[in-house]
# Entry
Amino acid sequence: MLNHRCAIGLGGNLDDAVATLIDAAKALSSHPDCQFVAASKLYRSAAIGPEGQPDYANAVLLLNTALDAWALLDVLQQQEQLAGRVRDIRWGARTLDLDILLFNQEAIQDSRLTVPHAELWHRAFVLLPLLDVQSETAWPSQLNIATRLEDPKLSTQIISRWLDPRWDTACNELRLHSRSS
Ligand code: A4P
Ligand code: MG
# Structure
């Protein structure tokens, strides 16, 4: 039963990051225990972390899943590995980063997982795409996200739409496929 709704943050800033995010969105949406619900627009954001990194491509994917949060994290980490992710520097440049932003309305805190994601409320590159798909989530409210984005610490983060027709085409395909299945 696909009875959990989760929001996944997608980010990448090495190689062809848009292609990597598309591959990840498709792979997760076609996982036997997951179902596509919605995808945000695609954003370009200045890296938060060590200086001298390329800009990131960022987006948010909403899924229904039968997996629990820990099994979902396993799937996300496998997908990061497939994308050639190398873990060295914290917040360093990476081909693909997949984070569980929200999992139902659950609060999880253990050695492997913090949900909602610990940095959720501090990052425009998470909140702006989350706002795009907010109507499909039970929380946080649109008002809370929009109010938070007005905070100077977030409103000064550099972020803009990343216009790439490949993202829109892929999202349309995922939407059509999820309606027909
Ligand atoms: N972990 C705990 N909670 C979660 C969760 N909710 N989702 C643990 C996913 N993982 C979670 O992650 C380290 C450990 O976090 C995992 O083993 C998991 O058990 P990691 O992906 O190996 O390392 P990391 O990503 O470098 O560390 P961290 O602290 O997760 O970083 P973030 O928060 O993912 O930030 N700037 C821009 N503009 N755009 C970005 O997308 N991303 C980051 C990474 C930094 N700067 C960025 C961006
Ligand atoms: Mg991460």
